[in-house]
Specification:
- The protein has 203 residues and is of the alpha/beta class.
- It has a single domain, classed as Phosphoglycerate mutase-like (Rossmann fold, 3-Layer(aba) Sandwich).
- Helices cover 37% and strands 16% of the residues.
- The chain contains six helices and six strands, in the order E-H-H-E-H-E-H-H-E-H-E-E.
- The protein has helices at residues 13-16, 30-50, 63-70, 100-108, 121-142, 151-162; strands spanning 3-8, 54-59, 76-78, 144-149, 179-183, 190-196.
- Strands 3-2-4-1-5-6 form a six-stranded mixed beta sheet, sandwiched between helices.
- Helix 5 (121-142) packs across helix 6 (151-162).
- The two termini are 28 Å apart.
Length: 203
């Protein structure tokens, strides 16, 4: 089976504190390291059971994703297109401190740029869709490709799979260290699972 496995990184201290986390380069906390290990074990087990070898582990350039990807124990390739949204001056601020009017305008317009923000959701969608197209080509020929990324790119990948573009940005919730699977064989894209987290609560 030709799959893109799209995984969000494990927890960081900033995540645990409820901060908006974009390009700030922070490490996984202890819980995040445990989550990464469980995520990797689950994906490897599922791929082996399906007879679909892991063709590539691909990560955003930021430390929290690279550390999550490293838990697979396989070579990791870095794809800059999988990096998180550039939140500009909002990066590292508590979610509760973002003004209501910013949330309102952000949700209403995929081209909206919050103050100091370096990238719109539409721009994230464009780069992630191109990355997904490229890595889907690898998956169709070689086997499962794992993309380890962030919340906004995961939603963009889901939007690509469903053909709704940036429409998934505000209508989906993506947990830390979750897994979503997109089947890309036969020239079709099918979102087969979304936001799997059962591997985080197992024995």
């Amino acid at each position: 089976m030709s799959d893109l496995v799209v995984a969000r990184h494990g927890r960081t201290a900033a995540n645990a504190s409820g901060l908006l986390l974009g390009r700030l380069d922070v490490p996984l906390d202890e819980v995040g390291q445990q989550q990464a290990a469980r995520l990797a074990a689950s994906v490897l087990e599922t791929a082996a059971a399906a007879g679909s070898p892991i063709a590539a582990i691909v990560s955003s350039p930021l430390e929290r994703t690279r550390s999550t990807a490293a838990a697979f124990g396989l070579p990791v390739q870095v794809d800059e297109r999988l990096v998180e949204l550039d939140y500009g001056e909002l990066d590292g601020r508590p979610l509760a401190d973002v003004p209501p009017e910013v949330w309102r305008d952000w949700r209403a317009d995929p081209d909206y740029l919050p103050p100091g923000c370096g990238e719109s959701l539409a721009e994230v969608q464009q780069r992630v869709e191109q990355a997904c197209e490229d890595w889907a080509g690898v998956a169709r020929v070689e086997g499962t490709v794992v993309l380890v990324t962030h919340v906004s790119p995961v939603k963009a990948a889901v939007g690509w799979a469903m053909g709704i573009g940036a429409g998934a940005a505000w209508t989906t919730h993506v947990d830390q260290a979750s897994v979503s699977r997109i089947t890309v064989g036969g020239g079709r894209r099918v979102l087969r699972t979304f936001n799997e987290t059962g591997h985080l609560t197992g024995p």
